[in-house]
Every structure is written in C-alpha cells, then in structure tokens.
Amino acid sequence: MKLQMTNTQKVLRFMANNTVPILFLVICAFGIPLSGYSANYLFSEIIIRIVRNSFLIVSLLIPILAGMGLNFGMTLGAMAGQIGLIFISDWGIVGIPGMLLAMIISTPISILLGWWCGKILNMAKGREMVTSYIIGFFMNGIYQLIVLYGMGAVIPIRSNALVLPRGYGIRNTVNLIGIRKSLDNLLTIRLFGIPIPLATFALITLLCLFVLWFKKTKLGQDMRAVGQDMEVARAAGIRVEHTRIISIIISTVFAGYGMIVYLQNIGTLNTYNSHMQIGMFSVAALLVGGATVAKANIRNVFLGVILFHLMFIVSPMAGKNLIGQAQLGEYFRVFVSYGVITISLVLYEVRKRRDENIAGLELAAEQEVKA
Amino acid sequence: MNFEKLKASIQDMVRSFGLPRVIIALFLLVLFILAPFVGVNVGTSLSDTLNRFGMNAVMVLAMVPMIHSGCGLNFGLPLGIIAGLLGATLSLQINIPGPFSFVLAILLATPFAVILGWGYGQLLNRVKGGEMMIATYVGFSSVAFMCIMWLLLPFSNPTMVWGYSGSGLRTTISVEGYYLHVLNNLLSIRLSDHLVIPTGMILFFALLAFIIWAFLHTKTGTAMTAVGSNPVFARASGINVDRIRTLSVVMSTWLGALGILVYQQSFGFIQLYMGPFYMALPAVSAILIGGASVNKASILNVVIGTFLFQGIVTMTPSVMNSMIHTDMSEVIRIVVSNGMILYALTRKTEAVR
Amino acid sequence: MSITFNRKTWIRLAIIVLILAFSVFLFFIGRQHTVLVDNKTITVNGTEVKALQLVEVQINKLDALELAARDRDKFEVTGQTHEVKVVYTDSNWEEHVITRKFKIPLMQDMVMILIPALVADAQADQSVWLENYEPPTYAMTAAPDEETVITDDLAGLITEL
User: Fold this and answer.
1) Considering the domain boundaries, does residue A161 fall inside one?
2) Sign of the torsion angle spanned by Cα atoms B146, B152, B154, B158
3) Which of A23, A336, A346, A348 best probes binding to B when mutated, by most B CB atoms within 10 angstroms?
4) Which of A307, A359, B123, C6 fits a disulfide with A24 by CB distance 3.0 to 4.6 angstroms?
5) Number of domains present in the structure of chain A
6) A230: domain range?
7) Mind telling me how many Å the CA of B353 is from chain C's nearest CA?
8) Is A15 part of any domain?
9) ipTM of the complex
10) What is chain B's alpha carbon radius of gyration, rounded to the nearest angstrom?
11) Over the stretch B56-93, which tens digit does the pLDDT of each residue have?
C-alpha cells in the first residue's frame, strides 16, 4: 500500500529524516558570518580537522552495521593507541617507523580490549550503548592503574622525560615531537596556499575502501544480518555472538590507529584526558553527518566532520561578537555537541517506535483483508 | 555434614547478594580493621563516612522511584540537581541569611523540579526501551545549557557574581552565612573528640526515606511497582502507565533537587557550571552496590549502598596513603563504581526491553 | 580451545612472525640518537691531542656545524649507520677532509665523537674517537618537582579537538 507523496510531502519527509544535519547547517550559516573568520582560514582549519578525525569516525561504522549501536567503547582503542605511543616515545623511535611501530604495538592490546568489550556487550543485549559507555569509564580506571602506577614501576620506562619525578607514572603531557606530522608531511601539496597532507588522505581513503569492500564480504553480510534481526540471523546459521564480538574488535583496532593518526597531527599526548573526550566527539560528529544508531555510511562521516567542526571553530568567536563573551561560545558548542547526540538518540527511538507501530497496523490490516 | 550445609548456605547467600557486593563489603571491613594499625583514627573515619553518607543518601534515594516504575537507572539526575541549584541560587539572591534560606531554597527548587521532571518524564515515555542512554545525554545537555544560563542570568548578590565584571555567577559559591551546616549541626551528637554524628542530616534523610516508603505502600505506589515489574499487566488493570512513569520521574527529579541542597549544606559550596556533570554516576553505582538492580530497588539498598560506597571513598585514601604512601583512591573509586554499574547492566535476571 | 596445526594455523603463525620481524626492522631504522661532537683537548693512548682552532663537522646530509676550540654541539640522527665528515685547516694552511662511517649501538641514546682523536688518526678504529655518553642525572630531572597529575575525568571544556 504505497502512498503517493506530493512534492511538499517529499521535502518534509527529507527534512524529517535529516533533521540534525539541517539544524547544523543553519547554525553554521549563522555562526560563520558572526565569527568573522575568513574563508581561507576556515578552509585550512577544516582540512586539518578532516585529516585528524576522519579515521576515528570511520571506525564507528562497523559496529553500527552489526547492530551494536554507537560504539562508545572506541575509547578502549584510543587507550591502546596511546600506550603504543608511550612506548615508542620511550624507545626513541621517530618518524614513520615510529608511527608504524606504535600501530603494531597497539594492535594486540586493541584486540584484547575489543574482545573483552564485545563479550560484555553480548551479556547486555538491548543495552549496548549504555554498557559501552560505562565500559569506557571503567577501562579508564584500569588505564590509569597501568599508566599512572604501573609504568615506571612494573613496566620499565627508561626515559626520564616521560616519567613523573616521583619515579613511576607517566607525565600529564608527552611530547610527541618525534612523530609529529610525520604522516602529514610525507606528501604535502599546496592548494591556494593551504597545505594539504596527501599521505593522510590516502590512508583515510584506503580505510574507506576497506569498509566498502568489507560490507560486501561474507563477514560483512553476516554482520548486517545480525544487525537487522539477531534471531533470524541465528536461525540462518550465523554465529551471532561471535560476529558481534568481531565487529567490536575491528572497531577497536581501527580506533587505535585513528588515535595515532590524530595524535601525530597534534604532536602532544594528553595522557589522561584525550581518549575520554575523543569518543564523545567522534560520535557527535557522526550523528551530525546524518547517521543514526542503526544506519551510517561514509557520506555521514565526512559531512559530519565538516559540519561539526565548522560549528566548533566558529562558536567562540561568534559568541564573543554576539554577546561579548567568548566563554559563552565555548559553552554553546559543548551544549550543541551533547544536544545533537540527545536529539539523534530521541529521534531514533521515536522513529523506531513509529515504524514498529506502522508495521503492526499494516500487519493487522492484512489480517483483516484475509479474514 | 554440618560443614557442607554451611558451605551451601554461604554459597546461596553470596549468589543472591552478588559476588561483587560481597567483595566490596569485605574490602571495606578490611579497611576499617586496618585503620588503627596504620595510624588512621577510626573515630574520625567513622565520622567522615557518616557525614558523606548523609550528604549523598538523598541523591541515591532519588534513584528509587524511577527504578520502581521501570524507567531504569536515572542517569539524568543532573536535571534534578539543576532544579536544586536554581533553588539555591535564587534563595541566595533573595538574600535572607540564616537557616531559613535552606527552607526557601527547597521551596524555590520544588516548582523547577516539577516542571523539569514533567518534561523529562514526557520525553522518557516516548522512548521506552532506550531510557538510560537518553537520560545520560539529557543530563549532559542540560548541564551544558545551564552553563550558558549561569553566565547570562541577571544575578546581583555580590557573594555570587564575579567581582570584576559584576555579572555572571562564579563557579563555586559559598553558603556560609546562609545555610552552611544547617542540618549537620541540628541535634548533632558529639561522642568524642573525633566522632561527631550529624544527626540532623541523617534524620532529614530518614524522613524522606520514610515518605518514599510510605508512598510505595499507597495505591499509587503499588501501581508504580506494578508498572515497573509488569507493564502489560498494569495497563490491563487500568493503570495509566505513562502518567505513573511521569510521576516517578517528577519524584526522582524533586529528590535530586533536595539531594543537592543537603549535599551543599554539608559541603559548604554551591558548585555551578560543570559541577553536576558527572554526579549521576556515584549515585547510580551506590544504589547498585546496595543490592538494587536495573528494575528493582528498595530503601535498604539505598542505605547499604550509600554507606558502602562512601565508606570506600573515605577510607581508601587515608588507609592506603598511610600504608603504601600512594594515593590510589581515585583509580579505585573509578574501578569500583563503574565496575558495579557494569555488573548490574549485564545481569540476565532482569527482563531486557 | 584446541589448536589443530593445519594450513590455516601455519599461515597465521607465519604472518605473526613476519610482523614481529617487521617491528624489529622498524625499531632499527627508526631509532633516534643524539650525536654529540666535541672539540676539546683529550688524551689518546697516553699522548695529548690538542683541540683544533676551527673545524667544520657534518653528519650525513644535515647542516654542517662549525666548532671552535673546546666547543661542543649535537646532531639528531635516525638509524644506526652514519657518516661523519670533518673539514679542517691545519697549521700549513692546508685543508683536510676526513670522511668516516660509524655505527651507533642500538640501545644507546647518546654518543659523542671526539674530533681531535679522529683528526689525529683518521684511520683509527671507531672505538678510539666514538664513545657512549650518559647524560648526568641532574640534567635529566630538571623538571619542576611533584607535578600534580590531572586525572580529573571532567571532560567539561575542551580546548583542542
């Protein structure tokens, strides 16, 4: 029973399905002229942000495919990447070899953490997002146990520049001067005077191609089946729990690599804080791009990065020019970041319920026709 | 034979109580026993623990109505805290020094709590099944939103605003001169040089706990329990499920508002801006430690849980510091509280919706 | 979980060994060292060798550094094998160029090249003019005392994204 939609209905339906990106477009449309930044400046900043964050956000796609929702547990991957970086900083390995070695070190840690996270999420079916959220916090405690107390004491760290004066525990900030921009500077071209790091773009493109290829493989199709309906997938012979765990492991490993890419761009490691924030911002950016808890693709990633970071960059200045306090702009962007996640989650649940309702009504109508 | 029976009954008890809880309780016991041996005064520790118990108990109590009605763990407690903060700041703005400001704060916070709770409840009714995640982010968004408001709202009391610019509230505001220790000092019992029992605060909590307990035994209260344990049956019995759920959310928000006021009068400061951001997590894990689950909670859970949680938070720094000269308390707190929440979220005994 | 040694397991083991070998390779080519070059009067095998008035030192293709008597400077290099080129003018106003290859021990952070020793005997074994260097401990703990570690999980305001 297909309804014929008028053009206005089509437009309204489009707007309803893409509420969050449109909302963000409006905010940016207001904010950019208010902030007074030049197009050149914004363009170069956005390029930097895309280069920095895309890898991390793409790592969120696979759990959504498998029906695990938004993987707040990517924090675990970020921690693994950071541990890898701490080691190579201690050993004094620089440049691309340093980055690669950090990635190699982070992989087994990510696999272990991802496996454990996946097992716990399987025990909390139906509540995956809250559980992955709390897992992130819990793991933060374990991470601190290792990095703040274990390193230097139980785990040998040679470099005094890394260890706190008390003899054990890594310092608050670790200077990553050795690998700073090593990937970015590998191959740079200048476009309108703005440096564009081609090597990093190439890496991100590779990851996107991998995700697209993965969706076509048997494992990818299995994940999609699990994501749509677990019981049907189980009846079809798919090992549901195993597939779910694999999706989390892949996501965690990529999050680890993504964190290394992120940090090589920034150049400094904020040992105890960066991994906690990165999860929230990656999720927010993905949602801004139009993704939902059940459906996300590459388009959402890039649209989300651009819109979200545009808002992020212009808010303080816009707040200053509008009200006179830059602080206001900063609070505003925090509010918008959390607000967008809230709205997306609410819309998803409401829509899910409405779709179930409609499906139920259609089913009832069919039964009536039969009878 | 007797040994076998004893072992079986212990195993039963552990299983029903939950292994993590037993571990936590034993851990706290060990800390208390170790205390005098490492030079930590047991009296002061007990006094501190009781103090923190009183400070936090009301916020933990706020979890009970929503768990009962099946809305899950109230990660959106910051919304109630904000209602309390609004009451506190407005009371200070009206500027009546002395204990009456506390009563005024409660009176002013209540309408905010009711309105915010009602809106929040309406939202939760539309998202049945995904309440906990949305509650978390509603809490965060509202704290972030209020950050903007604290900057903009036209408060003028000089003790509250930034001295330099004269507008915009400070991050922490002292309640000295208003309702500092208003409940603590009420009927406080001084047992010794170190051991002071803040009776007033504990009596206030006991009063609220009694009100909730009594409510849960009224007709509406039993309806609430029915909605939580079996919503289909409740609807079939003619209970308006949505209305009861909204009521539970309003109650929870109101208790959260009262809870932060009790906390402030003992702590001595009003914490604005990002202060309430993470305040839901300790309360959630406290009630879970006390034996509650995602859809079952009792007043006893509140008392036991708050005592155990605050006990660990108080004792670990002092005892561990004296023993191994390292302050691992922060890490232990994170691991214990989040681990407890994880444990509760992964229990299969609850009906997963 | 029993492990059967079929083809799949062997391939997986081989890949792991390959990755480990690759990691060791990365370690070798990526290790950063500091090479100090020192131009001071030293005693070699009992004979005293004087410092040179002016000498130009270059490591690999990095910028050349000029050292006067008793000067000391440093180069940051990556990898284990390097080439040092020393250009100096002796008392007869003749210019001499010495080029030598040297290897740095893997785990050594800092090494020092004693220029006078190298100049005295240009064909000498590396151990004569290259020595391992340990920075004195007081130089390393120059950081401020007892940094407070910020483990606050209040992800409130974010400055850098």
Assistant:
1) yes
2) positive
3) A346
4) A307
5) 1
6) 41-370
7) 31
8) no
9) 0.86
10) 21
11) 999 999 999 999 988 889 999 999 999 999 999 998 88
